[in-house]
Design brief:
With 479 residues, this protein is an alpha/beta fold. It has 18 helices and eleven strands. The structure holds 2-acetamido-2-deoxy-beta-D-glucopyranose (2 copies) and manganese (II) ion (MN). The site of manganese (II) ion (MN) has 7 residues, from loops.
């Protein structure tokens, strides 16, 4: 750790700035964005009127997916220097990631105006414009007709499975362990499940999920243990590795997957169909919660929609979207441990009863604030960090011991903060093939409810890069 003196002459300030620049460059080349953020914060402190520091810290925040902070920094950079082009790009990228497409479009517009000959800027502007128009169109038709379920327009019974299909099939319409094993092997060889089987799984899992409460409450007996996993993000081969290390799900080997199953990784369909299959096979012992990536906005940008369209159809994506809206939002174990994807809330006084009452069959933006926060953010549009005071008050009020959340990549795969009362778990090792992080899962036993951490590293996967199906803006953007 390098400490910078607070008592600075102009000369030491000058050298410190040079040292910081070198340190930040090293951090960036090491992908150590957390330290880069620390050093840029020092730099901002030394020289609060330099747009580059804010802009570069904004990029570091983008890389760690703290989009709210990234947005604030890009905005600050532009306040200092409204001609700083990179600032517009970064603010646009932050807004895109937060689903604020119109705001993003405005910034691309500015770049195009200032640099009429910049082809890259023009392309991004056009791409973003397309999304804004598409959203407007979707809104227009959504208000015209009462939402009909895709399920009503499917005739699954009559879908035929061609003779040359030799892959796994449900047995009399039911999922069996044999089917699950065959399907996982089939996926491992990069083969496609027959669309009829995929639809069967989706229709059945929609029915199962829609009967669950928004807050799932379970009791672990003295002798029981559950495994809690964080984000998996389409890293199918790493999911298989979790099952290899920790055993296949079963009635005696229960799991809870804490959201963000899809997007970014290019094997999201394989991940989600495997998880849905196990949910159907062991509805009481296999649990899934919704993450911020089980939403239309995210799926459009980060690959899942593109992947489903590439491997199946737009109609199947519609059905996924319907199913995602029925995923529960939080799970409580033995009235003591609360698990949810994003973390706690910006307002104080939220109770478990408030969570029970959330009507969840909807997309986050028009759904009241609670549901969105649980998946995504806490204070003021910022996507990470709520203070220990928030955790403390929440736990006390609800008579809980600690919370488990996911959503943020951690170098060790997990992180224990707030004196052990807020635990983060993340299960996508070497996230996006580039973060170099470990993955982790947690064992929680009924006997003592003490979290026990298990780490693992990434395994190889076939040569399809992450984000292969993502929106081109996201592929080309600095994310
Ligand atoms: C800001 O980031 C750029 C790369 O985008 C880098 O070349 C430059 O050195 C950084 N500036 C400072 C002051 O850290
Ligand atoms: C299957 O198709 C046939 C002929 O089109 C139709 O008569 C029958 O009702 C369909 N079955 C179902 C279950 O929809
Ligand atoms: Mn997330």
């Amino acid at each position: 750790t390098i400490r910078f003196s607070r008592n600075r002459s102009l000369e030491t300030k000058f050298y410190q700035v040079i040292v910081i620049k070198i340190l930040c460059d090293i951090c960036f080349s090491d992908k150590d964005y957390e330290n880069a953020i620390k050093y840029y914060s020092e730099a901002v402190d030394l020289n609060p009127s330099n747009a580059i520091y804010y802009s570069n810290r904004s990029l570091a925040y983008l890389r760690t997916e703290c989009y709210g902070y990234a947005l604030a920094d890009a905005t600050k950079a532009l306040e200092i220097d409204k001609n700083y082009i990179k600032g517009y790009y970064r603010r646009a990228t932050s807004n895109m990631a937060l689903g604020k497409f119109k705001a993003a479009l405005k910034d691309y517009e500015t770049v195009v105006r200032v640099r009429p000959n910049d082809k890259d800027a023009k392309m991004k502007y056009q791409e973003c414009n397309k999304i804004v128009k598409q959203k407007a169109f979707e809104r227009a038709i959504a208000s015209d007709e009462i939402k009909k379920s895709v399920v009503d327009s499917l005739d699954i019974e009559n879908m035929t499975i061609e003779d040359d299909y030799v892959g796994p099939k449900l047995e009399d319409g039911t999922i069996t362990l044999t089917f699950m094993k065959e399907m996982m092997d089939w996926f491992k060889d990069q083969k496609k499940l027959h669309r009829k089987c995929a639809y069967q799984i989706l229709v059945q899992v929609k029915d199962v999920l829609s009967k669950l409460p928004s807050l799932v409450e379970i009791t672990l007996k003295e002798t029981e243990k559950i495994t809690i996993c964080g984000d998996t993000h389409g890293q199918y081969y790493d999911l298989l590795n979790i099952f290899k290390l920790n055993g296949l799900p079963s009635e005696t080997n229960p799991y809870l997957f804490n959201g963000d199953f899809v997007d970014r990784g290019s094997f999201s369909l394989e991940v989600i169909l495997t998880l849905f299959g196990f949910k159907l096979l062991y509805p009481e012992n296999f649990h899934l919660l919704r993450g911020n990536h089980e939403t239309d906005n995210m799926n459009q940008m980060y690959g899942f929609e593109g992947e489903v369209k590439a491997k199946y159809t737009a109609q199947m994506f519609q059905l996924f979207s319907e199913v995602f809206q029925w995923l529960p939002l939080a799970q409580c174990m033995n009235n003591k441990v609360l698990v949810m994807h994003g973390g706690l809330f910006s307002e104080d006084g939220v109770t478990l009863d408030d969570l029970r009452k959330i009507e969840r069959n909807r997309q986050p933006p028009d759904s009241g604030r609670l549901i969105f926060q649980m998946q995504h953010e806490s204070k003021s549009g910022v996507s990470c960090q709520f203070g220990p005071d928030v955790t403390e008050r929440f736990l006390e009020q609800n008579k809980l011991d600690f919370i488990v959340r996911s959503h943020e990549v951690k170098a060790e795969g997990y992180e224990v903060t707030h004196s052990g009362k807020c635990i983060t778990v993340f299960s996508a090792p070497n996230y996006c093939d580039q973060m170099g992080n470990k993955g982790a899962y947690i064992h929680l036993r009924g006997s003592d409810l003490k979290p026990e951490f298990h780490q693992f590293t990434a395994v190889p996967h076939p040569n399809v890069k992450p984000m292969a199906y993502a929106n081109t803006l996201m592929q080309l953007g600095m994310m």
